[in-house]
Amino acid sequence: MVLGKVSDFLIKYQRLLTYLSIFAALMLLMRLVYDDVLIDHDNPIVLAIFILAIFILAIFIGILVLWTLASYLNRGQHMLSHFILQSSKLINVYAVDLDYRFIAVNKNDIRLMEEIFYFTPKIGDFPMNYLNSEDAARLKANVDRAKKGETFIFMDTIKTGDKTLYWQNMYSPIYNNRQKVIGVSCFVLDVTEQRLHELEIQRMAYEDVLTRVHNRRYIELAFEECLTRKEEQITVIISDLDKFKKANDTFGHATGDKILIEFGDILTKIMPESAVIARLGGDEFAVLLPGVSENQAEFLIKLVQAEMTLKDMGITASLGAYTNSYQSHKNFVDFFAIADKKMYENKSQKGERR
């Protein structure tokens, strides 16, 4: 404790102490010069001692000057880094020691922690105490990874109220003069705006513009993911609106678009959250159902048809489903062809034409 206070005092007043030391050395030199006037110049030993003292003092003063200059330059660099980190409104910086306690934090990170996690980080605090179990485990895992000497970037998704934030975190180990890891620093950059823009581009790439359900490309990718996850039950439902062309030609494209939008809404309402709903083109829709059996699919089909009747849409829909496993070695086109055939059988039973 005492040594710590002494060290803080020396660091805080190092420049003043340096100047005092130089002043004391100069005063001593003047004293020696004064005494030299009173001593015997003819004594070679005294004269040699005097010259040696002057030489040693000159070296000492030179060292002090160089040390002061180096200290000033080093302090200037640290102050510049400090001002940059404290002034930036985009960069949030914090550092923890090997025991996961704060050893540094800039003002912007303090503001961010107060707004998002409702605590004010202070030097010596243990951040895990203020985080939920999931966030704390993720932070510990990232710090442990950096403690092993790895520098890496981690994208963090933060849920706060009705908003989702995206943070890009760059973790890096902190080394001492002996190249030993003594802590971990983290630069946090809020990339929410950029990420939302990327997601919007993805949505436009994989979403049907009219109905707001997915498009064919997306459902094909989702089907591939089912195979990768080795789903034991994969169901594909294909639907086609009966007499849609006639309704479209009779009442106009605006009415036809409204029917397509409403049918997409019905599928979204009836199908489970895990379902992937897509418009393949025209009035043809497809639904991918991971982990759903054939009987469950038939029940969902009946719910869709009942909902259409309840809404009195003026048209009906024909639907067909096919269920199999990832072990069938069939791709989306194969599932689609079989479900489409069943859908056509359903349409034929009602006396409808495609």
The helix/strand class is alpha+beta
> What is the radius of gyration computed over CA atoms, rounded to a whole number of angstroms?
38 Å
N- to C-terminal distance: 87 Å
What percentage of amino acids are in beta strands? 15-25%
Helical fraction equals 55-70%
Unreliable stretches covering 5 or more consecutive residues: 76-81
SSE ordering: HHHEEHHEEEHEHEHHEEHEH
Mean pLDDT: 83
How many alpha or pi helices?
A: 11
Main β sheet profile: 5 strands, antiparallel
Shape: rod-shaped
The largest beta-sheet arranges its strands as: 2-1-5-4-3
Strand count: 10
Describe this entry's structure for a reader.
The chain is of the alpha+beta class. The chain is 55% helix and 21% strand. The protein has eleven helices and ten strands. It has helices at residues 2-12, 14-38, 44-87, 107-116, 133-147, 192-206, 216-228, 244-251, 253-270, 294-311, 332-349; strands at 91-97, 102-105, 152-160, 163-175, 181-190, 214-215, 234-241, 276-281, 284-290, 317-324. Strands 2-1-5-4-3 form a five-stranded antiparallel beta sheet. The chain has a five-stranded mixed beta sheet with strand order 6-8-9-7-10, with helices on both faces. Helix 8 packs across helix 9 and helix 9 packs across helix 10 (294-311). The longest helix has 44 residues, at 44-87. The protein is rod-shaped, with a radius of gyration of 38 Å.
